[in-house]
Specification:
119 residues; mainly alpha; flat
């Protein structure tokens, strides 16, 4: 094998994983809709799921991105310390990108909340 199989697998995985995720999302929504329609057909009252406010969506995205970035940086930091490879810190620095985006979402959440309290 001269490495061509690795490229083929990379292309298949890079296209297959998003397609699988989209299908799973579609199927879960379809099952929820069918379940809701069956409950309505039986006469059961089905509570509507409340929509999240913009502030709540910003807060959730901020929490997820910040925690994910800190976890990424810490995990690669541990690998760098265990393996005694300082080049791994370069990869850990990539965690700064989602960290900055997460902090931006927290700033957005704060500004939205302040605007709601002002009005």
């Amino acid at each position: 094998m001269d490495g061509t199989i690795i490229g083929l697998v990379a292309v298949i995985m890079s296209l297959g994983i998003p397609l699988g995720a989209m299908y799973t999302y579609y199927r879960v929504r379809q099952l929820r809709t069918e379940e809701r329609l069956a409950a309505i057909a039986k006469g059961v009252t089905v509570p509507m799921e409340p929509e999240l406010s913009q502030a709540a969506r910003s807060r959730r995205a901020g929490i997820l991105l910040t925690c994910g970035a800190v976890g990424f940086i810490v995990a690669l930091g541990f690998i760098a310390q265990i393996e005694h490879e300082h080049d791994t810190w370069t990869a850990a620095a990539l965690g700064i990108i989602p960290l900055a985006i997460g902090i931006g979402y927290f700033v957005d959440f704060t500004l939205i909340r302040r605007d709601l309290h002002a009005s």
